Amino acid sequence: MIAQLRGKLVSKSPNQVVVDVGGVGYAVFVPLSTYYQLPDPDGEVTLYTSTQVREDAILLYGFKTLEEKALFELLKGVSGIGPRLATNILSGISVEELVPAISEGDVARLRAVPGIGRKMAERLIVELREKVGEAPARIGLPSVPSKDEVLEDVISALVNLGCGRKEASRAAEGARRALGGDAGFEKLIKFTLKAVSTLK
Predict the structure, then answer these.
(1) Do residues 60 and 2 touch, judged by C-beta distance below 8 A?
(2) The whole model's pTM is what?
(3) Backbone angles phi, psi at 170, to 5 degrees
(4) In the CATH hierarchy, which fold is given to the domain comprising 147-199?
(5) Is 49 helix (H, G, I), strand (E, B) or coil?
(6) Cα(73)–Cα(64) distance, rounded to whole angstroms?
(7) Which CATH class is domain 4-63?
(8) pLDDT one digit per residue (tens) for the chain, 200 residues
(9) How far apart are CA 67 and CA 139, in angstroms?
(10) Residues 102, 90: contact at Cβ < 8 Å?
(11) Do the first three CATH levels of 4-63 and 147-199 match, i.e. the same topology?
C-alpha cells in the first residue's frame, strides 16, 4: 500500500494531479481542498495517500493533511459512499466544518454539500457521529467541544469580563435553556452578554 508520495508536481487539475517520484509519474485523485494548497507544476509536493484496489485498476487518492486522509477513510466506510464520493464530499466542505456538522447532527449543513441528500446526511450522522467524536485523539481530527465545555467557556469569558462566578453561571445556564442544548459558544456568549447588561 502506498501511504505517502513526495516528489515533483508534474501537472494538476481540480480533481487529479501527477506526481513524479524518482522518475515514476503517479496519477492521484485529490479533493479541491488539497488542490488549492498545491504549488505550481515543477514544485515539490507531499501527499498522504490512500490506495484503492479494484479488479481493473489501482487508484490513489491524495491529501495535503493527515486529517483529510483520516476523514476520507471514515467517509468511505459509510454504506453507499465510495472513494470518489468521499473525495467529492471533502471538495464541498472542510474538515473543520464537516466534523462538527456530523457530531451535532446538522442535517441542513450536510445537505448543502454537493452529492449529499437528506438520506445520505442522516446516514453520515448515524454511522459516524460516535466515530468522529472519538477520532480527534486517535487520528488528529479537530475536536468538537462537549456541551459542558462550551458552557464552561462561556462562564469563564463572563468572569474575565468582570461578572461574578454565580451570576455568570446563572446567565450561561439561562442562555442554554433559552437557545437549546446545541447552541454553540458564539450564540451563548452573545445571549448572556445581553442578559447580563439588562440586569445591570
Answers:
(1) yes
(2) 0.65
(3) -65, -45
(4) Helicase, Ruva Protein; domain 3 (1.10.8)
(5) strand
(6) 14
(7) mainly beta
(8) 788 999 999 999 989 999 999 999 999 999 998 999 999 999 999 999 999 888 888 899 999 988 899 899 999 989 889 999 999 999 998 888 888 888 888 899 999 988 899 999 999 999 988 887 654 444 455 554 555 667 777 787 777 777 777 787 888 888 877 877 667 777 777 788 777 665 44
(9) 7
(10) no
(11) no
Please report, as a single letter, which amino acid is at residue 94. S
Q: In angstroms, what CA-CA distances link 198 with 71, 130, 141, 191?
A: 44, 40, 40, 11
Instruction: Tell me which residue has cell 453520515.
Output: 124
* All residues at 6 or more sequence positions from 35 whose CB lies less than 8 Å from its CB, including other chains: 12, 13, 14, 15, 17
Length of the chain: 200
How many other CB atoms sit within 10 Å of the CB of residue 145?
Answer: 14
Domain extents in the chain: 4-63, 66-139, 147-199
Grid coordinates given for 84: 470518489
The residue type of 119 is K
Distance CA 7, CA 110 (A): 35
Residues 29 and 87 sit within 8 Å (Cβ to Cβ): yes
Domain covering 66-139 in this structure, CATH number? 1.10.150.20
The dihedral built from the CA positions of residue 86, 88, 90 and 92, taken in this order, carries a sign that is negative
How far from 21 is each of 51, 99, 109, CA to CA, in Å? 16, 33, 39
User: What's the angle, vertex CA 161, arms to CA 158 and CA 164, rounded to 5?
Assistant: 60
